[in-house]
Specification:
Blueprint (H helix, E strand, L loop, with lengths): L15 E5 L3 H7 L6 H7 L8 H8 L12 H20 L3 E4 L4 E5 L6 E2 L3 E5 L5 E11 L2 H8 L4 H14 L3 E10 L4 E9 L4 H19 L17
Parallel strand pairs: 6-7
Antiparallel strand pairs: 1-3, 2-5, 3-4, 5-6, 7-8
Helix pairs in contact: 2-6, 6-7
Length: 233
């Protein structure tokens, strides 16, 4: 399936530049040059796998980010992304999917804010622009399922808000493929509107800018943030 690349073209009015890479190795290296979407929740202590201190140490070169590319979950998610993107297109004829592999979006006002979406969207009638995020996960316990019942898990919410900061787009659609231990599978979809989260987006942007300027650039290790010390959205 061919996708549009309109939103990846040079545009003086866009809030972002598009960085294109020849190889996946170069693309992965490029993602380390700033704060990406998957880093965003760690900055504020809302990432279940990485603290803000660990993130700081990775960014300043004190430690290396663990290589998880060979994990079964990562390999499954990577293989499932394109079929899920195609299915999304079939289910949403009202949206034009833009996609270009091995690219990074870099915010022009804050060039250290980076984002690699699974696609960019444009509403055919209104012209509104959005982000497509695709997630795959396996649910082993009931508390994990509960995180997806009413809304997306908190760390993913901050990831997509990060995308709205970088692009200044209007909305995000997150499509999740959930696999359960009894082989039951479910696809769920969530829409996050910029207008609803505009105050939280501005607050989160301040945290990201502060972390970059006063920790990363200043070489000052942050105080470790625990979940109970940060008020969730």
């Amino acid at each position: 399936m061919a996708y549009s690349t309109e939103l990846y073209q040079s545009d003086k009015k866009a809030a972002y530049d598009v960085l294109s890479f020849r190889t996946e190795t170069d693309w992965l290296a490029g993602r380390t040059k700033g704060i990406g979407g998957s880093d965003s929740s760690a900055v504020i202590g809302r990432n279940p796998w990485k603290t803000n201190v660990q993130l700081y140490r990775e960014k300043v070169g004190l430690i290396h980010s663990p290589d998880i590319s060979n994990s079964e979950a990562v390999k499954y998610g990577k293989s499932a992304e394109e079929p899920l993107r195609r299915l999304f297109q079939l289910d949403h004829p009202d949206l034009i999917i833009n996609y270009k592999n091995k690219t990074i979006l870099r915010n022009r006002e804050f060039p250290f804010l980076l984002y690699s979406p699974d696609g960019m969207l444009k509403e055919r009638e209104s012209g509104r622009k959005g982000i497509l995020e695709i997630k795959t996960t396996t649910i082993f316990q009931s508390f994990q399922k509960e995180k997806w019942n009413d809304y997306i898990p908190e760390n993913y919410l901050y990831q997509v808000l990060h995308g709205l900061i970088v692009t200044e787009f209007d909305f995000v659609i997150l499509r999740a493929k959930l696999k359960f231990s009894d082989d039951y599978q479910q696809i769920k979809e969530y829409t996050i509107e910029r207008e609803i989260f505009k105050e939280q987006i501005e607050d989160h942007k301040k945290f990201l800018v502060n972390f970059w300027n006063n920790n990363i650039l200043a070489g000052v290790e942050p105080i470790e943030l625990l979940p109970e010390l940060y008020v969730p959205l």
